[in-house]
Design brief:
This protein is an alpha+beta fold and about 220 residues long. It is built from six helices and eleven strands. The longest helix has 14 residues.
């Protein structure tokens, strides 16, 4: 099924590459989404089951109501050795938090505003409190579960962007032996440009750009 052009942009901003659907009778399905610049298509095993269960035919109309729900959020605990372990459904639309992070009401409000505005992009969002290692040792690492969900090459280039600023930085990255993503270049310059500090809580969203590069948006909350 193709999403109508007049709602495609809003639809793409609200859902990730996979989203859950509940029919009026309570039956649950999981639909896949393929986003293109000029076309967005709903497909997958769950969609086929939906079509079959309701005996849908050409010309039938379907209404989809979207709801942004905290029920999609994941939690990151930390093991005894200090290595992050993440309980995240890789095929789900997820918002992932650094272990132990508690948002203030103001931060929660900003997040609830920013995520629907910018969209879930590639289906997973990272909320992280910057550490001494992140800032002073060029050491920001993206958790391996997020890397797996993004399904990108083991090394390459991404674009780093900050909030509403029209500035961005090319950054090279590689995948570490434990599966996390680490920036090889670009991160230090990005930190300096926007005066990021230890203790800043950042909302990190991942979008696929029209040029084929992943664009990573940061918002200080």
């Amino acid at each position: 099924m193709t999403v109508p052009c007049f709602v495609r942009r809003q639809f793409n901003n609200l859902v990730g590459n996979v989203f859950d659907v509940v029919a009026l009778d309570g039956t649950e399905y999981r639909f896949n989404l393929k986003k293109h610049g000029k076309k967005t298509r709903i497909f997958g095993t769950g969609y086929k089951e939906f079509i079959s269960d309701y005996e849908m035919n050409v010309g039938n109309r379907v209404r989809i109501d979207l709801e942004f729900s905290e029920g999609f959020f994941g939690i990151i605990p930390e093991c005894s050795m200090g290595i992050e372990k993440h309980r995240v459904q890789v095929d789900a639309t997820s918002v992932v938090y650094t272990s132990g992070l508690q948002l203030t009401p103001a931060q929660r409000g900003r997040m609830d505003q920013r995520v629907p505005e910018r969209g879930m992009g590639m289906g997973v969002v990272f909320v992280h409190k910057l550490t001494e290692t992140d800032i002073n040792q060029n050491g920001l690492r993206i958790p391996k579960e997020i890397v797996k969900a993004l399904n990108i090459a083991k090394r390459g280039w991404v674009i780093l962007a900050m909030g509403e600023y029209n500035h961005w930085f090319d950054a090279s990255y590689y995948t570490t032996t434990d599966g996390r993503l680490r920036f090889k270049s670009g991160w230090e310059e990005f930190v300096g440009k926007f005066d990021l500090e230890v203790g800043n809580v950042v909302l990190i969203l991942f979008h696929m750009g029209s040029n084929g590069y992943v664009k990573i948006f940061f918002d200080v909350m």
